[in-house]
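The methods section describes the discrete structure representation at length, but only in general terms. What matters is that the chain and its backbone geometry are given together, residue for residue. Nothing conveys this as quickly as seeing an actual entry. For illustration, here is how one protein appears when written out as sequence plus structure tokens:
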Amino acid sequence: MNVVCLDMEGVLVPEIWVAFAEESGIPELKRTTRDEPDYDKLMKWRIGVLKEHGYKLEDVQNVIARLEPLEGAKDFVDKLRDITQVIILSDTFTQFAHPLMKKLGLPTIFCNELIVAEDGEILGHRMRCENSKYTTVRALQSMGFDTIAAGDSFNDLGMIQASKAGFLFRSTEQIKKDYPQYPTYEEYDDLYEAIKKVL
């Protein structure tokens, strides 16, 4: 039995923090997991920047509410779900993900949680488990699933490496150069066909 594990931001939807950086006028928030492999370090830094500028959860959620899936992403997910199980494995947060998942047809998503004060200030974050994408793929395999994974960033490499087949999608030139063993695609149709071949 197969299950396809997909990253969310950069693969199916725009990068949330990049969108917020553009709207808030804080360019340093454009830093993502494409730039920083240590997700915990990245999130602590982001939360510090939000606090410094007085932004709260609702401010970020208002930006997310206006985001749309990347062109072709919903059709891609729908086609995949017609032929196999699909799980979105993301380092985003439950407080961010729902409106985007709704626009993608509510596929299953495993993600993390923000720690939020009563006044909406983001105090911290709680990871679902350590090295969550890799750990989840290994757990699925322990239940008898073969995993196929696709992502674009450093934090996707663990699940890609651990899977029976792994693909880079719209990744950075540096990651593609450092991991030439993984096929890389820019279009959903090409990624769909590659996944279909290994099911």
